[in-house]
Design goal:
With 366 residues, the chain is an alpha/beta fold. The chain has 13 helices and eleven strands. It has helices spanning 28-32, 37-40, 50-54, 61-83, 102-119, 128-134, 183-193, 201-208, 231-245, 251-284, 303-315, 325-328, 333-342, and strands spanning 10-15, 20-27, 41-48, 90-98, 123-127, 151-156, 161-168, 171-178, 227-228, 292-296, 319-321. The structure holds 5'-O-[(R)-(carboxyoxy)(hydroxy)phosphoryl]adenosine and zinc ion. Zinc ion is lined by residues 128, 132, 157, 298, 330.
């Protein structure tokens, strides 16, 4: 006979901050029994809106919110159905409360509030960026994850490019930040100039694989260590593309140009990220007794960046914590992981009406 699941202690995690609707179940008993975090993840459902937004060259907030409204209940029901876990087994609900698109966040948070009120289950507000960082701890256990701190994190997504010092879970100091575009945005905007559909980062990196670094592009703000900047690169790339395209005479030449240009852009972005990471490692490793470095966010799916990051970790004798591909781009498992790791020092609430949505929520303000 199928279990009704109510003897279990399950956490339901919800993510809807941008263009991915996702929900996941996390086994809280297994986590308490020191099971590796990834094995506590029971199941996840995710619906990506990439196709819907790609014709517009970016996320259309109103369309994204409507998709979340349509998909979230369907995904949560499917999760219950697939896992045989009944509603009574859900003893906690974690939901992304920011940062993100306000309408999108409101869908997830409102739905979570409804479930919380109806079933008298506490809510845990999760910062999306913190979840990206903590997804790097997916192979650790309740008894071991603290051994990896202090750590330095390189957070690279579509909206953020930051180096952060993590002293404790919940205590983040922003060491370097972008002045303008995020790394993912630079991949997306330059990729779109090359004719790739939004979000162009993945396709650009696939073309880069067959290319050579032959184009000279400016390495952004090399001598300022606490900031990144990618808008100059974007302008230089745009001018170079216009100039070179006029000289292309065949499809073969065009293909080679796109491959080489993609490799050159990717190299430039990766070099910019890695050189600053190395600077901060050499500055902080001894004084802060760093134990590990974390690579996270959607751009962490980039193979060239991952390879360079691993080399830095080996060279500096710091453990590299890198989430697998499925935890790099937006997902609900990372929301569950963050909730579990923060459980003991996070305010949960049984009064969902006081639960805020924060479109802007820097990690320094957690
Ligand atoms: O973390 P994420 O899913 O969403 C935000 O919170 O922003 O990151 C999405 C970003 C997009 O800009 C996308 O182009 C980029 O991650 N991305 C990549 C790769 N895969 C995703 N950028 C470079 N190489 C990739 N393989
Ligand atoms: Zn994200």
């Amino acid at each position: 006979m199928a279990s009704n699941g109510s003897d279990k202690k399950i956490l339901l995690a919800i993510e809807s901050s941008c263009d991915e609707t996702a929900c996941a179940f996390f086994d809280l008993d297994a986590f308490d029994n020191d099971t590796p975090i990834e094995d506590c993840l029971v199941a996840e459902k995710l619906s990506s809106q990439i196709k819907l937004h790609s014709d517009f060259g970016g996320v259309v907030p109103e369309l994204a919110s409507r998709e979340h409204i349509r998909n979230l209940p369907l995904l949560i029901n499917a999760l219950h159905h697939e896992t045989n876990i009944e509603k009574g087994a859900v003893k906690k609900i974690a939901v992304t409360a920011g940062p993100g698109l306000k309408g999108c966040l409101l869908v997830g948070v409102s739905y979570a509030k409804g479930l919380s009120l109806a079933n008298n289950v506490p809510l845990i507000p999760i910062n999306h960026l913190e979840a990206h960082i903590l997804s790097g701890f997916y192979q650790l256990k309740k008894s071991t994850y603290l051994d990896k701190l202090p750590a330095l994190a390189l957070l690279v997504s579509g909206g953020h490019t930051q180096i952060l010092l993590i002293e404790k879970v919940g205590e983040y100091k922003i060491i370097a930040n972008t002045q303008d575009d995020a790394a993912g945005e630079a991949f997306d905007k330059i990729g779109s100039l090359l004719g790739f559909k939004y979000p162009a980062g993945k396709e650009l990196s696939e073309w880069a694989r067959n290319g050579s670094i032959v184009h000279t592009l400016p390495l952004p703000v090399q001598n300022v260590q606490d900031s990144f900047s990618f808008s100059g690169l974007k302008t230089a790339a745009s001018q170079l593309i216009k100039k070179e395209v006029g000289q292309i005479n065949s499809d073969i030449e065009k293909k080679k140009f796109i491959e080489n240009f993609s490799a050159s852009v990717e190299n430039c972005i990766v070099q910019s990220l890695i050189s600053k990471l190395e600077f901060w490692i050499s500055d902080l490793a001894e004084s802060h007794k760093l134990k590990s470095i974390v690579l996270c966010g959607g751009v962490a799916a980039n193979e060239t960046l991952k390879t360079a990051f691993k080399e830095v970790s080996i060279k500096n004798k710091l453990e590299a914590l890198m989430p697998p591909f499925r935890f790099c781009t937006d997902n609900a498992s990372m929301i569950a992981i963050a909730a579990a790791l923060k459980m003991n020092n996070t305010i949960t609430t049984n009064e969902p009406s006081t639960f805020p949505v924060k479109a802007r929520w820097p990690l320094s303000e957690i």
